[in-house]
Amino acid sequence: MPNTFKVKTDTGVTGEATIYTVGGSTTTVVLGCLIGNTTTGQVTTTVTLVNNDGDNVALLTNAPVPAGSSLELLSGNKVVMEKLTSKLVVVIE
Fold first, then answer.
1. What pTM value is reported for the model?
2. Total count of domains within the chain
């Protein structure tokens, strides 16, 4: 099985953003997720693994991220996302 490592980023998120969608005939393993807050005020963030079958999994819910700091998710763990059925969605408010 080939291994292709990728870095996916999004900047200026103020609301909901799909960070990654699994492609066809692909299984993706998410090794880490880092949420950074570059604003001058605290924000809250929710990270959800969205499945096409409706069995969504909240990985993080309404977690505060102070101004100028970051929050690391999945440190030392992993999430397996199956082909064409999963996407990683981040909501920042």
1. 0.80
2. 1
